[in-house]
Design a protein that fits this description.
It is a single chain. The chain has 442 residues and is of the alpha/beta class. It has two domains: 121 residues, Urease, subunit C, domain 1 (Roll), CATH 2.30.40.10; 297 residues, TIM Barrel. The chain has 13 helices and 15 strands. The strands form three sheets. An eight-stranded mixed β-sheet has the order 1-15-14-13-5-2-3-4. A four-stranded parallel β-sheet has the order 9-10-11-12. β6, α3 and β7 form a beta-alpha-beta unit. α7 runs parallel beside α8. The protein is globular. The relative contact order is 0.17.
Amino acid sequence: MCWALMWGTSTWASAAAAEPVDTGQGTTWAVHAERLIDVRDGSVQRDVVVAVRDGRIHALYAAGKVPADLAVRELGAVTLLPGLIDAHTHLTGDPKIGTWETLGRSEANDAITGVANALATVRAGFTTVRELGAYNHSSSALRDAIDRGEVPGPRIRSAGIWIGMRGGHCDTNLLAPQYAHYDAGIADGPWAVRAMVREMAKYGADLVKFCASGGVTTVGNEPGTQQYTTEEMDALVDEAHRLGMKVAAHAHGAEAIKTAIRAGVDSVEHASLIDEEGLRLAKQRGTWLVMDVYNGDYIEEVGSKEGWLAEILRKNRETTDVQREGFRRAVRLGVPLAFGTDAGIYPHGDNAIQFDYMVRFGMTPIQAIRSATLDAARLLGVDAETGSIEVGKAADLVAVAGDPLQDIALLRHPRFVVARGRIVRDELRTPSLPSPYVAPAQ
């Protein structure tokens, strides 16, 4: 049974105002919006009707040229955008769970957490995400459950388990030696790294994520320190690309960033300490930077109140401002930038807060929107499927009151969201679509 029917009248779904609506196969329905943003050229189209059939955009009409037999839902004075994309999430992660508490959580706990976070994410207007690492392939299992219609959530491109060196950022470093434990993605040496990439492919990962440097939110390593060697990175990227998988490199430090770019990674995550040579290299190679420029404020505010480890807070302070300056320089230089938040470090569903920061640190509103639509779709390799409102693409749509090109903060409050043709959020209170456009009663 699909989730649109199974959860349509449940107490929990009603309390969350979720109530996903499955519009049914073979039916055509439409929405009319005052404005529609064409993310390809940044233009704003007026009075556009978007027709949806079988989960895809069937046609685009000027308001006065709609077929007489087409049921059109009036959305009113809203702006319609493509479904948003977050290129760096951890849906099975929860910032409310403290550093030490993670040691007591099972992979089943993570999977259940992921279901709730997937719903929060898609209702926030993010209809596609790139999942960059989870325990025991839980995000891949979540992806499959969403694709089968068992639970609501965004389209997921999953990296399976993060790959990294023993004792590095991608390992578990909180336990004493007598309780020795290593994360499932730990591999040392070029051939072991190749084998681990093959393991990710075996268990259904869409791409590979590895740790090229130390990190902020783990202990015993520094963000500026390169972890994998040149030989290991070269082997990892070569193997992943040979298998048709893209590669994302977690890299804060300048040398780790440049080594990863030279190895041929498709994206660099965080890029906090990137230098001028790294920026030029990324532009020259067409390597995407995914810079989570909001995270630092969240960690400083919440981590300080909730007793996060002093080492984490120190490293966060050492990387936050310099990362934002690097982002500003990347925008000026024209380096490819895709929207990614590292949600899971901060609450899922709050992803759009980062738009404010991207504009504050150098982007125009349309650049920020494009980074989370067409540009992110290109990075993920799903631009033929989503990322813009075009005939033939999936019906991934977000409506916000007002004009986000004038006030980017409006993206924090979507009023109407469609994911692959299913209405997952509807707060506009305009007349509902007639039957069969609503889920039948149970």
